[in-house]
Amino acid sequence: MDIALIGYGGHSKVIFDIITMQKNKVVGIFDDKHSSLKMKGDVFLAPIDYVHDVLKINPHIKLVISIGNNKIRKQMFERLALPIEYYTTCIHPSACISPSAMIGKGTVIMPQTVINADAVIGHHTIINTGAVIEHDNEIGDYVHISPRSTLTGSVKVEEGVHLGSASVVIPKVTLGKWSVIGAGSTVIHSIPERVMAVGLPAQTKKILKWSDDLG
After folding, report:
1. What does the alpha-carbon distance between residue 129 and residue 143 come to, in Å, rounded to a whole number?
2. What is the pTM of this model?
3. Confidence class of residue 204 from pLDDT cuts 50, 70 and 90?
4. Is CATH 3.10.20.70 the classification given to domain 90-207?
5. Of the chain's two ends, which shows fewer C-beta atoms within 10 Å, N or C?
6. CA-CA distance, 166 to 182, in Å (whole number)?
């Protein structure tokens, strides 16, 4: 499969490696640091607004928004206004994924992750290195589950949530839209939308606005 990345920073480097390990090929990188379409070896480099022009030339290219910030990832998807079918899912070969799990388009599954039975993961979400997604989890779009985090059974994670590294969420808890859970926190009760919660157990520390860096 030929894949092009949208955005090129630290997060995209990991995705580049995953694509290679999947035996697929990165054929292009769209990023506004480039002022025009050019070739670097067999990879094209182009501004983001060239996406539609390139897809007209080669409609078989699949896309991944390789931006770590949840908010910007959503804004990029809306800016491009392409059907979800134009995007592909990237899964590291070391990930352990149940056959009954469902994973959305544009989502990236990092090394050593575990995704268990009947888990549902939305579009353009990041399940980062070593995270554990237990059975019957529902994870929305534009979420980031950071490294070594554990979501126990039947957790619901709504759109845009950022769960910090090494966090733990107990069963049947809901994390509201665009909430942020601090690294190392333990969540034992549901968290409202658009708040920052930290600690053992996690407590609300700040009400977040859309202008905040919700990614």
Report:
1. 14
2. 0.93
3. confident
4. no
5. N
6. 9
